[in-house]
Amino acid sequence: MPEEHRIILKHADEPDYTRDIDCYLKHGGYEILQKAFKMKPDEIHQEVMDSGLRGRGGAGFPTGLKWKFLDRKSGKPIYLVCNADESEPGTFKDKQIMYKDPHQLIEGMIISAFSIQAKQAFIYIRGEFFEGARILEEAIEEARAKKFLGENILNSGFSCDIVVHRGAGAYICGEETGLIESLEGKRPYPRIKPPYFPAVLGLYQSPTIVNNVETLCNVKHIVEMTGKEFSKIGSPGNTGTRIWCVSGHVQKPGYYEFPCGGLTMGEMINEVCGGLMPGRKLKAIIPGGSSAKVLRADERFKGKLKDGSEFDWGIWDIPLDFDGPAAAGSMSGSGGIIIMDDSTDIVQALSNITAFYAHESCGQCTPCREGVQWMRKISKRMCGGDAREEDADLLLSIANQIEGRTICAFGEAAAWPVQSFVDKFKDEFKAYAETSPVSSESGDKQLV
Amino acid sequence: MRPLKDMELSQETIAKIDARVEKYPTKRSAALPLLHLVQEEKGYIPDEAIEWIAKRLELNPINIYEIITFYPMLKRKPMGRKHVRVCRTLSCALRGGYQVCKSLQEQLGCKLDETSANGEFSIEFVECLASCGTAPVIMVNENHHENMDEEKTIALCRELKKNTT
Q1: Do A336 and B132 touch (CB under 8 A)?
Q2: B62 → chain A, closest CA residue
Q3: What is the spatial distance between Cα A308 and Cα A288, in angstroms, rounded to a whole number?
Q4: CA nearest to B144, candidates A90, A92, A336
Q5: Which among A89, A92, A169 is the nearest to B72, CB-wise?
């Protein structure tokens, strides 16, 4: 069985490990911050560039490049924002870090803030993490008392503070410009981009870097081991470890940290997660949070990889890194792998997902606001025993009219599941008019 | 417009509000945190709070109102003293979230999206709570309850009813 390689979650689940600063210091905590202060901010940035680190929030954008876009000449203050909204369905990794090892995030944030020269940082945490917000605020107080935060940190001449800001139950706040609007005290309507990305005009119209929790923790480890060493973990273009979150129909759901590409989907599900439930067969996998396109159990995935080599994979052969699920026509997204076995009524599963996006659309763009409601209504009607043969094509038509016609990627996030479910399980959707009363009985769990 | 009651808040909440406003470069950023603080004390956002917060932050009431109507966690009506949130989203549903929700309604004598007559319980479906590995998951007030099944639901409800005020 592939062995976990824990860097971010190294201590999180050790029996004696507690989240207070004394325990963190005993485990070498804040030593890397002291190392960072002996470097120049640009040198840290170069290490992050060399590491090949890609954002762990969903888009997988290179972190060093994001930092490079920062407008350093505007004369305005620079802000660092940690995206701790963790709201992509199927994802629960950042919670483990914040609840069990909050100082790791804080140390990663101070190092990152020093590198980009941000004196003010924010952690935008989802509203339902009541305890998480308290844990982080306590940890920040502890860090401030030990002079790791505040004015002139450890006599470095660098000052920085972190404010914990709670959301209030809206998925769209995970979108970085929606998050910024929310942090400014407005409705979280995502901003139009290009031309101006947050690195140029972000929070308070100032240069702003928004990074995910796991991404910022990685910065600490990059400074510790150097970017070059970090880049040796995983493979080129897919460096470091990733914390995969497996949920749904497996024996051992949970979070597992592996080097990027260190194992295949089959090894993850059949070995690490103990396989499917007894007597069940695989039906489908959503590999990167509910926005990612679904993969059908019996699909073959063929094509050329970035390095030019050809591949011909079954679903179990897909390597778990950034590029593997993308090569298979989906994405690794936030690392949330949702497993559905043959007990799943696929129309109900899609209906569950469309209800999510209908609830979460911010309502700013017409195609999304109207389209997600229609996709919810149609799929719900289908599940209610009133399915029509033309529903499959109708759903596809609506999804196709949302994709590419919205300000933010929510439009795609809502369209991709519909497009992929209907396309890959078209027979089931077409036949649902006749089979729905039977199949909703046969599915052992109600999904809508 | 009908006259509003004066906003009454505890000294503790006022102190927290003052400290919170100080933390941000602009007052407006404190809007959502202030709404959280008011809701923590009152259990919901009363009409007078909208004007009060707007004035405190030098905004118009609409700037506060438009936030309240956007975010699902901000409530315009009092919720039950024990506010039960049940995750509705796929990973929880695949492992029986809907059954847990049904069972909670039966055990607590409270319907989905309603508050029980005695004001003790509210049950609502919420979207993904980021605990999919321990699905199905619910929250009672600020605490998560994971790996829920029929047995655990019954035991939890017995506990919740025991502590009825």
Answers
A1: yes
A2: A186
A3: 24
A4: A92
A5: A169
CATH number assigned to the domain comprising residue A413: 1.20.1440.230
Query: Structural domains in chain B?
Result: 11-70 (1.10.10), 82-162 (3.40.30.10)
Structural domain that includes position A417: 346-435
CB A247 within 8 A of CB A90: yes
Q: How near does any CA of chain A get to the CA of B129, in Å?
A: 7
Judged by CB atoms closer than 8 Å, whether chains meet at A352 and B139 is answered as: no
d(CA A192, CA A272): 42
pLDDT computed for residue A437 by the predictor = 54
Q: Is A83 left (phi over 0), alpha (psi -120 to 50) or beta?
A: beta
Do residues A74 and A171 both lie within one domain? yes
Measure in Å the smallest separation between the Cα of A231 and chain B Cα atoms. Answer: 29
Closest residue on chain A to B102 (Cα) = A446
Q: Do A89 and B93 touch (CB under 8 A)?
A: no
Last residue of a domain, one of A232, A258, A287: A232
Q: Decide: B47 and B64 in contact? Cβ < 8 Å.
A: no
A239 and A226, same domain (yes or no):
no
**Is residue A5 domain-resident?**
no
As for the ipTM of the complex, it is 0.96
State pLDDT tens for residues A237-259: 999 999 999 999 999 999 999 99
Residues A180 and A195 both lie in one domain: yes
* B8 to chain A, closest Cα gap in Å: 23
CATH code: domain of residue A48: 3.40.50.11540
Mind listing the pLDDT tens digit for each residue in B140-157?
A: 999 999 999 999 999 999
Residues A373, A326, single domain; the answer is no
Q: Is residue A438's pLDDT more than 50?
A: no
Q: Note whether residue A119 is domain-resident.
A: yes
In this prediction, residue A434 has a pLDDT band, given cuts at 50, 70 and 90, of confident
Residue A11 located in a structural domain: no
Contact B130 A446 (CB under 8 A): no
CB contact under 8 A, A338 and B96: no
Between chains, do A447 and B98 touch, taking CB under 8 Å as contact? yes
Quick one: how many helices (H) and strands (E) in chain B?
A: 7, 5
Fill in the DSSP letter of residue A107.
H
How close, in Å, is residue B22 to chain A by CA atoms?
11
Q: Are residues A105 and A220 in the same domain?
A: yes
* pLDDT value at residue B6: 80
Q: Does residue A167 sit in the same domain as residue A248?
A: no
Query: What separation in angstroms does the CA of A216 have from each of A55, A323, B59?
Result: 9, 21, 34
Is the pLDDT score of A440 beyond 50? no
In chain B, residues with a C-beta closer than 8 Å to the C-beta of A91 are 128, 130, 132
Instruction: Please provide residue B144's backbone torsions phi and psi, each rounded to the nearest 5 degrees.
Output: -80, 145
Amino acid present at A257 = E
Q: Which residues of chain B have pLDDT under 70?
A: 1-4, 165
